[in-house]
Amino acid sequence: MTALTLSTAAAPGLRADAIVIGVAKGTGSTSGDLVVAPGAEAVDKAYDGKLAGVLETLGASGAEGEVTKLPAPSGFKAPVVVAVGLGSQPEKDANGAAFDAEVLRKAAGAAARTLVGAKKAAFALPVQDASAIGAIGEGVLLGAYSFDAYKDNGKNEKAKNGKAPLAEATLLGGKPRDKEHKAAVERATAVAEELNRARDLINTPPNDLDPEAFAAVAQAAAKEHGIKVQVFDEKALEKGGYGGILGVGAGSAAGPRLVKLSYTSSKAKKHLALVGKGITYDSGGISLKPAGHNETMKCDMSGAAAVFAAVVAAARLGLEVNITGWLALAENMPSGSATRPGDVLRMYSGKTVEVLNTDAEGRLVLADALWAASQEKPDAIVDVATLTGAMMLALGSRTFGIMANDDAFRSAVHEAAEEVGEPAWPMPLPEHLRKGMDSPTADIANMGERMGGGLVAGLFLREFVGEGITWAHLDIAGPAFNEGGPFGYTPKGGTGTAVRTLVRLAELTAAGDLG
Known about the structure:
The protein is of the alpha/beta class. 32% of the residues lie in helices and 21% in strands. It has 14 helices and 20 strands. It has helices spanning 41-46, 51-57, 101-113, 130-143, 179-203, 211-225, 234-240, 243-249, 302-317, 362-374, 389-395, 407-420, 453-462, 499-510; strands at residues 3-7, 18-25, 34-36, 67-71, 80-88, 120-124, 168-172, 228-232, 257-263, 271-282, 322-332, 344-346, 352-354, 380-385, 400-404, 424-426, 444-445, 470-475, 481-482, 493-494. Helix 12 links the parallel strand 15 and strand 16. The two termini are 36 Å apart.
């Protein structure tokens, strides 16, 4: 993974393969003109103050994520200047103009993606405070990500073109001895490394990542970072009465697992439980998915990957909060032993569920894990799942939905997501939709009305949250897996969405700022 360093050195004298600067669209009297962003003054001076004009001649507009490369001026030890667009220049206020953290994060990521094969690059983007340092560092680490385990025999961490990701990024304007700047880099590194680990899991083919293999990865990471881990195999699940997880995994030769990760702090005053859907491959089961809908179903464990990464990141950061992560892992396959539409499952909570559609399996494994999490009486539970296509229809491919049994908590989760740069939107849980899940045979059916299907799924999950426990549900079906081209710091394939939101929620809980 790319290494981050801080430096107060001037860009012209720094030995590197490239110098990254920011450019923006002017506002006010400079509206429509290209503006060189703060941090690049020394670079602009080397072009006799004409850098903006040169870039405009090359077609640069300052649009977010736009990257323009040009030869470095005489006297520079780096051969190339990389100008990345920051969008509109912020209006000046009493505190001076500051670019939004997410703008810096995206710009750093976009630039890092273009520096494949480079050994070192210096980032001279606008740095007003430690949060800017953290955003730029995070953007670099996420943007430089590549998944090459199945290319070149996975030996040299090389992409198909034979070039490795950017090896080192020096953040100019960052003070190596400043405690806040150092802490910002340490946080960015821990969060980005674990988020990238989640991406690796999501991108791993299902023939190499079944529930048992996922559990083994979790066990290894837990041992490394002092996290207590407990793995429930088929026998333990059967003994415990986890009918939802067992029912979903019944059709696969690869048995299901429930993994419990427990991070504890001696200074913790709050307990946060995180629950992740971990369907390592989803064929739909007997309710088989149609052709064209199976190819990316290795990503149906993105929720569990996010929870796993968030717990490990919290441990690495030493957050003063107790966090329990529950990974509900199963492979949903059709076979002679698979659960059938019409079957009734007795869940861990004791409730019975009539399975009307075996492709609505995520809510079944989550139901068992939610009830297990509830038994410990945490202060709050947040579940994360690639749960419904309906949520994608509602919010598109880059925004996840948030549902909750408490409006204030839903708002707090939304604010945390927006703060870290993960687009999300609060969604309701309309009571009238609950009736559609009434079953003549069981306590509840796993399907209800077709319209508002994402909300119906949320209502189903609410049935398995312990009484009096604050709960939120994140449906990340849209942004969990990017089937289009890369953008900003987001790669093609697994994105690791929700990891940063969960980590931020853990930080807020530790600080006593979340309920």
